[in-house]
Fold these 2 entries.
Entry 1:
Amino acid sequence: MKTIFRAAFLCIFISIFSIYYSVSQQPPISNDALVDIKTVTKEKKSTEDPGKNNNLIVRPTSGLSTWIGKTTSKLNETIGAPDRIDKTEYGYDWWIYNKDLTNYRMFAVSNEKIVSVIGAGANAEIEPFHIGQNLQNVFPQGSFESTVVINWKNTIYRFELSEGDFVNRPLIKLDDIYAQIYIDNFTKKVTAIRFLNKSTLVLEKPYELTYTGVLEEVPAPTDEEWGAIQKGYEKEIVDFTNVIRNFYNLPILAEIPELSVVSRFHSQDMFDNKFFSHQSSDEKKLADRLNAAQIPFAKAGENIAAKYVDPVAAVEGWLNSTSHREALLDPEYSHIGVGIVRKLYTQNFIQQVDLLQHE
């Protein structure tokens, strides 16, 4: 198992295939795909020592990571009721606190206990790290390994982190929990942290995985359950997009329900007809879809993605892809619409005509 100590290694960039295009009487600027596919492979025999500690540093005694293992009653007593509760495909619910974009918090709750926490925004309490922390100051705090081994329920799981994972979302062990660190590779700064226990890490499978034993999985959601999950995921895309824009001092985007309908229709089209492209199955482009919905715009853009663990991971993926980033951080956009079907994400942006006329 190779241990990575040098932050310089983490500056290696991988080529990310990306999809985005801008509509203002201009042709598409890109026609590639942003798809996060991780393989899961069963081994006959483990070649790793399951008793070895991976990336071990001391777990903080303050901050969001301390909530893992605590109860929802304690959360209610200390922070208050969540602003929203969203369903997920992983058997837990997100308790979301989104009123303050400088301190955005998501608590994953399973059986009334917190199993994962996400923090973002300039004031997020993500000890031992902090939002905006420079990459060079992150990695001396602990060693990072390309292989992380977990022994859970008599099964050995071995996660393999690629060079791209080190650049975008390295993983570190903090005693009995893990921290997934999201990094903006253009600024080399921390944008968010996901703390999670070992069972949640296994269920989410965010990296390449091999295992020996019985693979732990949650039951697949029913169609009705997916409907509720998708609604929550769409709101999370809007939330997290605005958290990132707010961090970079950009205007917050207002959601337009009609624009979300257009986005959702495109995701449904891709799901039903088994394709992945900005162009619809009837060869219509974004401008055509907006015009058909009678949504006026001076400028428009679209991001699509597939197979990401969840909306936070998808937005972080867009942030680290040049063409997606252009849309995500475009200061001229004023409104957003999001549509998700299963693991197909569509995010539409527009600059409204009336806003342009009043400038």
Note: The chain has ten helices and 19 strands.
Entry 2:
Amino acid sequence: MALTLALLSPGAAAMPAAATTTVSPRAALSAPAAAVSAPAPAVSAPAPACAVPDARPTVWVFDQRTDVPNRPAGNGCTINDRIDDERAWRGKGAFTRHLASVVVRLRKDRVVGRAEARTLLAAGLRAHVSRTGYTALFDGTAESLSKWVQAPGGSFTLQPDGTIRSVGGLGMLWYASQEFGDFSLRLRFRDARTDGGFSNSGILTRFPDPRIPLEQRPPGGCGTIGAARTSPAWVAIYCGQEIQIYDGPTGEPQKTGSVYNFQPLGLEQAKVTPAGVWNDYEVRVQGQHYTIIRNGEVLTEFGNTPGKNSSRAGDPPTDLRQFASGFIGLQNHGNSDLIEFRDVRVRDLAEDTGCSGRHRI
């Protein structure tokens, strides 16, 4: 595969970001910068600013994690922001050409070295490039929030800075406009408590429509058990999977990244951060396989296969949680639990597995 590339050594003549030439990866990486000829410079728009930069510690290229530090790359952005693998791409060729032009600019600006540039390009060649981009489910506006439904109790409030904050509970704010099959859900969260305590919340995934009347649910199904009979929030807890958010050293023993009551994590495994720090959180679900990623670190790999029992007596086993698609929700837990969310977005991964479907409770 040919890449659009010119790796500039610091101090060499600079190529504008939009000016490129097509060479092979090997030739571009092995040749001196002066040996890579450039066409006439083209005028390019300045790189956009990033209101909330991607703060993961290392650079990711789609599903490929590198050991390149995710350094500032100008205008309030980081390298991950410049690579911009969240948008839709026509194919791998389109993305690798874009990646090459980004690497050119990063070399010119002395953000990465030659070896790091080589690492980024190699990751681009290995990466599974998605043709679907991330779609915003909540973008900080009241309009996007209107597509979510609050299940009792408690609520979420929209803050002036475009975040939503959990208030009271136990309840759930869920995106009622669409079910998702295989997906990657990404968002940012932080613990907003300032009294020294720690807040509890979670991401609820792959649960069926909690508005379905009890009498229309299959007998013996997860939606007919215990509190799920009357509480929409418990339909999500009993039928889907809860991906935990809790960084406290005491109290709740299952920490951030736990698949609640099925695969618990301890404090060290959770890679906790102090209150007030924004965290990038990804829940990736393909088939019945869950991958939980926090700030670029994979915390959990979980197979939601039949035959696994919950650690809490009375909860449905995984046998009753075998949904091929479902809804997504954010948990509000209690009066003292103040978790804030922003930038909630989802990417359809059905193209990667070729399967999706709808199941009933």
Note: The chain has eight helices and 18 strands.
